[in-house]
């Protein structure tokens, strides 16, 4: 049962991180509209202490990403 518990905790941590990243990206995009035909994505992340710092970049919009 311990492996299941560890796997569940690991999954929950990854899911929470992905959700937070998605929220940060949406907030950034709302404050900084991308030029037509492009979209923002998180190109990097560093952590100083408990605070993550995100780097953003633009990429062309594709059917898969829109």
Q: Count the strands? A: 2
Bin the strand percentage. 25-35%
H and E string: HEE
Pairing-aware structural class of the strands and helices? alpha+beta
Give the arrangement of secondary structure elements.
Layout: H1 2-31, E1 38-48, E2 51-60
Antiparallel strand pairs: 1-2
Structure in words:
With 66 residues, the chain is α+β, with helices and mostly antiparallel strands. It is built from 1 helix and 2 strands. The protein has one helix at residues 2-31; strands at residues 38-48, 51-60. The chain has a two-stranded antiparallel sheet. The termini are far apart. The model has no long low-confidence stretch (mean pLDDT 87).
List keywords for this structure.
66 residues; two-stranded antiparallel sheet; 1 helix
Short description:
The protein is an alpha+beta fold and 66 residues long.
